[in-house]
Amino acid sequence: MSKPPERLFLTNAHTLNYERWVGNLTSDGIRILITTSGYEERSTYWINKTIKKIKPSDKNIFITIGFNEYRNELSRKFNDEYYIKKKIKIEIPKTDGWTDFRTLLLELFTQKIGADLNKNPIEIHVDYSCMPRVWYCRLPMFLETYFKKSDKIFFWYTPGEYPKAEYPSAGVEDFQIFSGKPSLSPLFRTHIFGLGFDRIRSQAIWSVIDPDNLICFYSEPGTRPGYVERVKKDNKELLQTANYTFTVPINDFIYMYSKIASIVQEFKNMGDVIIVPDGPKPLILASSLVPLFLNQTGIVCFHVTKNKNIVEKLVDVKPAGEPFGFNYYGTL
Amino acid sequence: MERISSKLKGYKGGNPFHESQSRTYGDDKIVSEFYPTSFYLSLFNVQHEILLGTRGSGKTVLLKMLSYSCLKKYSHPVANKVASEKSFIGFYIPLHLEFMGSLPGQNIPYEDRLKYFQFALNCSAAKSLLSQVIELLNDIYLITKDKLIRENNIIEYMCENWFIENKKISSIKDLQDYLESIYNKYQYIDTKKERSISILEQPVLIPIVNILPKITEVLGLDIQKTNWIACIDEAEFLKTEFIRSINTFIRSEKRPLIIKMATMPFKHCTRETNVDGIFIEPNGNDFDYRVIDMDCDSQDFICLTDHLCRARIKKCGVIDEDITLERFLGVVGKDDLIDYYKKEFGEDDATQDIIDRGIIKSLSNRRQSHYNVIIEDHTKVERPLIHRFEPVYFMRRMKEESSRGNRSVGWFAGATIVRRVSDGNPRRFIQIMNDIFEKARKSDLTPKNQHRVIMNYCKRCLQWSEGLPEYGVLLRAILEGIGTLLEKRVHGQFMMDGGCHFRIQGRLYDIKSIRNALELAIAYSLIISDHQTIEENIIKQNSDLRLSYLCAVCYWLPMRKGDPQIVKVAEDILYTKNAIIDLPVNRKEARKVVRQLKLEIFT
Predict the structure, then answer these.
(1) Which residues pair with A154 in a beta bridge?
(2) Are residues B186 and B327 in the same domain?
(3) Which of A173, A178, A207 is the mutation pick for testing B, counting most B CBs within 10 A?
């Protein structure tokens, strides 16, 4: 917190189709593949597909981070066993907070590619499907500044099958600014809400923020059939209240990101713009990165954390589609 | 007389009631829609005041209307006097969620967090103050040369006092930009801070207090007669440590700088200051609590709603000088319950004699026997019996009538009902009018149509209550629980005196989540509380509470006090003081929690 965040560049960013990428693999340089072991069945889907084409070796370095919490819940044991079978060590940070995760990654980078960091072009692949928000939203900036201009950074996401669970409401204490800084005294404010399946939570956020000018967005097409209808149904009241609604394609990260950024820019002319994302991870990631990329006072992204008064109900998310992703270059 | 709303049939323009959020209104809009309530006029005093108001009660408008730039545009004897004498000059400081959210979290040491809060608030206050200074300079000094000299004096003085070394500052606007720029580049841990930043890191508003005498003098105003008001809005987002910081100012400073701080009920959660053991004292010692919310039947609210109605309807090109809510909606008879009852059932079936007989027939056998004893004594029949039970009887009949297949009644209609459902809350009034206006475009605003719109609005609000922050899901279940209990009483086999008022048994509010949910309900005016409860910041056994009238619509309750009911948990439910129940995450769980409490009412 000692310095204001640097600007995010996302140099030469492209949306990626997994099948096309895996079909055109080249073998130059070093690859680092970062995955997770958690309680979701989805944890091993991407790696299981990828490991068939990219075998662990000196040049293909697999880093798996196991969550410190919930070590015996739902599919965690199966996931741990999977990695053990594949002879991939599961590294566990001291806590599941960003600082410990980052520290662990830095240690592992030094340990595994320290000598090669400045030589070979490196590819870094991150499967963020099962990562918590505090990790995957901070990783793009961290990796961009850590790796060289010739190094490529990839982010992959596997859509999930979410059961019809209901999630805890939110209170004022749960709001944290993830990126950007508000103006000192904005004349007008626009709130851009990303919508998911969480009606009560979305309404709670709405009632805390009490928006002046509400804009809503959700992903369309969604990750699977029926997704859009459910989002529309669950957020009927909010969508009726919104002054404008737009949609973004979940599987085209760069288009999604650009669209959110352009809407933000449009409303920035009127005053501050505050993004409050919910919904699938790519949508949250894109929203969180926009203030870092545009880097203007008055563009802010809120993260609404989970209510600490409510015991979290874990959900075993199963894979529900093929992975997709995006890549860009480092800036060092 | 023709309803004014009928002139809007087929109207294709924008709905003038669409906007209900005054935060974004410019000065002109604020001024054009403002009505000076007696509460507003009483704010021109030298006491620090904490204004407690529910969401939508008009806190922002009140505070913005204290600023000189709004006041001078407003045509009203008191406003004109204050503006011309410059006896009170307000400047508006919003503490919205983003502003508070940008403050550092727990990972930064307390001292640094506090410094940053003080810095940010001082920057915001200074910027806002300077906007008012620009307005004052323009009005006081009509000759450009004189104005520029004074402006330069102020700039020089502020730069000198705040150690601003930026030589490019040649106007107050530049000074404001400078404040914005240091706010943007502020770093929590910075050993080489500009001296101006260190000045602005002083306790809240102290840098402002230090420059006010000189600014007042340069403006040619009398320091003894000029009071400056820091109008701090949305203080509900302040964390306890920052409230302490503002309390410290309230405790130690008096005029010429006065604080008027608006927050929601139960959100001014501490009277502590930054000095251990020192508290701020209400009742005029250090400050006063003032409850903003209006009574829905008060003259203030009637005038305010008429004014809002007039200001907004005129935007649609309706040329009529005498627009009132009554004239917009139309009036049945004298807009009394009996008038709507007669309209519904016909004059012949609603004679006083038939109504009286209906009332007696609906009473319990015991009461009927009593009636037969007192039947000849007019004084015992008229007021204590007929007058008392008439509203309950009407409500029972209307509910019965509406529950018949394909039968729609025109009961919740008319200006009085619209104001009551608004519960003295201007924003709720605008929202209801938004829905009514939409109806008026398509069809006549008959009582039946008004009833449909109002009923839909109320049901929607009740449903939305579960979306209120944190305790919303539980709150909705509680509202449903209490609403159902009161409904059963009013619409049971025998007619009993009933209304919307109730009290809460101590054992019930001792349960932390229930207490928090009730506080939330009061903060969002779903439950209306007596002012004392809000000022004392605590719900007690003798707190006079009532379901909001929008809940009354949902449960067909007479909008009246009725016999006081006490809501309590069943005797066999054991809860210790401050018991914690798991916070439910969905409606099903919340209803289960409330069911487990086995709520009951007794008189």
Answers:
(1) A125, A327
(2) no
(3) A207
Apex B241 CA angle, B240 and B245, nearest 5: 110
List the single residue in B with minimal CA-CA distance to A4.
B187
Residue B181 falls within a domain, yes or no?
A: yes
Query: Across the A/B interface, how many CB contacts are shorter than 8 Å?
Result: 123
Pair (B243, B339) in one structural domain? no
Contact B128 A171 (CB under 8 A): no
With a cut of 50, say whether residue A1 has pLDDT above it.
Answer: no
A172-304 classified as CATH 3.40.50.10770: yes
In whole angstroms, give the CA distance from residue B22 to residue B3.
Answer: 28
Find all residues with CB under 8 Å of B25, minimum gap 6, and list them: B19, B33, B61, B64
Instruction: Please give the angle made by the CA atoms of B374, B376 and B381, to the nearest 5 degrees.
Output: 55
Q: Range of B447's domain? A: 299-461
pLDDT tens per residue, range B52-109:
999 999 999 999 999 999 999 999 999 999 999 999 999 999 998 887 777 766 677 8
- Looking at residue B191, what is its pLDDT? 59
Interface mutation vs chain A, best among B21, B470, B513, most A CBs within 10 Å = B470
State how far residue B195 is from chain A, nearest Cα, in angstroms.
Answer: 19
When the pLDDT of each residue in chain B is averaged and rounded to a whole number, the result is 91
Q: Does residue B485 carry a pLDDT above 80?
A: yes
Q: Which residues of B touch A181 (CB under 8 A)?
A: 102, 184
Backbone torsion region of residue A136, taken as left when φ is above 0, otherwise alpha when ψ lies between -120 and 50, otherwise beta? alpha
CB contact under 8 A, A310 and B582: yes
CB distance B98–A184 less than 8 Å?
no
State the complex-level ipTM: 0.85
- End-to-end CA separation in angstroms for chain A: 21
A287-301, B310-324, B393-407: range with lowest mean pLDDT: B310-324
Q: For residue B21, give how far its alpha carbon lies from the nearest alpha carbon of chain A (Å).
A: 6
Q: What is the mean pLDDT of residues A230-254?
A: 92
Start and end residues for every CATH 3.40.50.10770 domain found in chain A: 172-304
Return the structure tokens found at B235.
Answer: 């203080």
Same domain, B403 and B533: no
Domain boundary among B237, B271, B291: B291
Instruction: Decide if B13 is inside a domain.
Output: no
Q: Tens of pLDDT along A245-282?
A: 999 999 999 999 999 999 999 999 999 999 999 889 99
Which of B252, B271, B291 corresponds to the end of one domain?
A: B291
Q: Tokens 């109504």 belong to which residue? A: B355
Nearest-CB residue to B107 (from A1, A187, A237): A1
**CB-based contacts of A150, cutoff 8 Å, min separation 6:** A121, A329, A330
Same domain? For B247 and B310 the reply is: no
Distance in angstroms (rounded) separating the CA atoms of residues A249 and A221? 5
Q: Are residues B472 and B453 in the same domain?
A: no
**At B571, phi and psi to the nearest 5?**
-60, -35
Confidence of residue A4 (pLDDT cuts 50, 70, 90): very low
Residue A309 contacts B, CB cutoff 8 Å:
yes
Which of A4, A182, A313 has the CB atom closest to B98's CB atom?
A182
- Tell me: do B378 and B269 sit in the same domain: no
For residue B23, the chain A residue with the least C-alpha distance is A212
User: Averaged over B236-252, what is the pLDDT?
Assistant: 94
Distance from CA of B94 to the nearest CA of A (A): 7
In chain B, the number of structural domains is 3
Chain B nearest-CA residue for A176: B101
Whether residue B345 is found in the same domain as residue B491: no
pLDDT score for A18: 95
Residue B17 above 50 pLDDT? yes
From 2.60.40, 3.40.50, 3.30.360, 1.10.357, which CATH number describes the A11-162+315-329 domain? 3.40.50
Q: Which residues contact A190 (CB under 8 A, 6 or more apart)?
A: A211, A212, A213, A214, A215, A267, A270, A271, A272, A273, A274
What is the pLDDT at residue A185? 85
Nearest chain B CA: its distance from A58 CA (Å): 39
Best of A2, A179, A200, A272 to substitute, by most chain B Cβ atoms within 10 angstroms, is: A200
Predicted confidence (pLDDT) at residue B585 exceeds the cutoff of 80: no
Residue B501 and residue B448 share a domain: no
Examine the pLDDT at B229 and tell me if it is beyond 60.
yes
